[in-house]
Amino acid sequence: MAGRVLTRGLEGVGREAMRGNEENEESDRAVSEEEGIAFAQEYGCLFLECSARTRANVVKCFEELAQKILEVPSLLEEGSTVGKKNILRQRQESQRTLGGGGDGGGVLSITFTIKNNCNFPIWPATLSGGGTPLLTITGFSLDPGATSPIPAPPNWSGRIWARTHCSTNPAGKFSCLSGDCGTGAVSCSGNGGSPPATLAEFTLDGADGKDFYDASLVDGFNVPLLIETDVAGCNATGCAADVNQLCPAELAERAAGGEVIGCRSPCLVFKEDKYCCTGEYANPNTCKATEYSMVFKKACPPAYSYPKVEYSLLIEEKAPEEISCISL
């Protein structure tokens, strides 16, 4: 099928999932992946491309729709008795798997809300780590002032960053001057971003069941970033300063017109052990702050500024719910 279908959930759920045209029919596309993602974001639903022939993402489509049904208790009051029993059984099994108990309402997923407070568009991206699966959303566009949710499993580990100065060439290849992941498409699909890029890093349900999050400038800086949570007692962290305006000339990443669009790490520029914390500097006792890492540290004290920094302010509380690009 070369078209795209928006499936409405049961009444009370609204639009929940959009299934894209079969991924193995690339030559017969009627709508691009980028248009599909934008359409899904407009209607507040998830976007997945699947193929009955290769079975890619078929199960995932059903899992995501079932998850949405489970998240709406009123749906359990409607439909057939058999349907209710199946939903209840699946919810209980999911809760037991996640340690929630048969009656306890275990955490099935978390949601990151990405907000663009910059005065220019950004293209947020995600990369999973620690053996956790790719998120259903690995890249999308976000206009100034807009917000967008990213669902994630409760034990997810990975990073989120913003790409800037992005465009699509006449041949249809998508790329960004800052934070590009090299896939030629808006979705990063498991690729990391090219430095310099400001990173929001997460390990959920980590040591002792705690959620860890931090902001890192180890790979350089491209946009201000703030990680916040609405949970009482949990601290915000990030880098609210525009380091591009403070960046030493030798570290500056510039666009063709001379605009500074990022501040590179000294390791990336000079490739020396003392900046990369390698060789004889490969431990915290020998790898110390340098004149360059102090530029990042003075601008953004809460953020990691070089590879072996001892960071005593690492957040070990409830996972955050909002990441913002701060316009200064």
Automatic annotation (TrEMBL):
Residue span of region Disordered: 1-32
Biased composition (Basic and acidic residues): 13-32
SMART domains, per database record: THN
Alphabetical list of InterPro entries matching this protein: Osmotin/thaumatin-like_sf, P-loop_NTPase, Small_GTPase, Thaumatin
Protein name (Swiss-Prot/TrEMBL): Thaumatin-like protein 1
